[in-house]
Amino acid sequence: MTAFEGEKPVLAVRCSSGAKGTTTPVGQFRTFHKGPSIHMTNQGDGNENTYHLPGVPWVSFFSGTGVAFHGTFWHNNYGRPSSRGCVNLTPGDAKFIYRWTRPEVPLETPYLYQPGGGTLVKVT
Questions:
Q1: In order along the chain (124 residues), what is the average pLDDT of each group of 10 residues?
Q2: What is the DSSP letter of 48?
Q3: CATH class of 2-39+53-123
Q4: Where are the domains of the chain?
């Protein structure tokens, strides 16, 4: 994953994108919903493929279907597709993305939902 300011890369790191069957959506998006710590869950397939992850750090959503950049503490497979669609980063890299992207989250705000003018995200 590479973050650019104009043509200049400001961060280039290994990430874990969506694995087969749960690929990260391709296209252009904007960051719009952010939180420093979010409980992530899904409905799974009944008893299988369900996850509950409290305290996922530095979450920056860029898709209306729940796809986000976020820190990952449950694996260390950066550089290999292994997520359920999100872009998994080290907590430090996710914190950089959270703080660097727009909209900016005020310190007194626990999370921010602001569709429209966030940072452009291109997934290819």
A1: 97 96 95 95 70 93 95 94 95 97 91 92 96
A2: B
A3: mainly beta
A4: 2-39+53-123
